[in-house]
Amino acid sequence: MLLTVWHGFTAWRRGRPFWAGLFVAAGALIILFPPFVGVKLGDMVISIKTIGGVSALLIGALLAICAVSLWLQPKFRLAAGLVTVLLSLVALVVTNLGGFLAGTVLSLLGGALAVAWTDEPKKPKEAKGSKKARRENAAVEPELAPETTQRVQPT
Asked: Which spans are transmembrane here (predicted)?
């Protein structure tokens, strides 16, 4: 049963930009985390309560929406990827260095993966010097086919 679930998840994952969504979701969580969590070190509480908290909430939520859309609607991957890249660059300036640079870097990586992802299978490449490749090139482009020439030997 577990194997069947794993195979189903793998088939679902391969049909969409899964890793892009995962990186964007991780970046969103890292951008959301610092302004809303107080870290307690002994008697001291470290808390970042600035105007960056409001922008972190907005940017983190929008990045999370982009991550979910990458997983659920892969046809919007280009738009979600571009919005992710723009939001992560804005987060760098507006929110605590974009989650102390980690959130920005993860979101940029996820956005780049989303823009680059395609669901078309790779076409196998033929070797450059193979007979089949030369035959196909000659059939498609007869004017570029090699001509027979005579060599003249120097005397």
From this structure: 18-39, 51-71
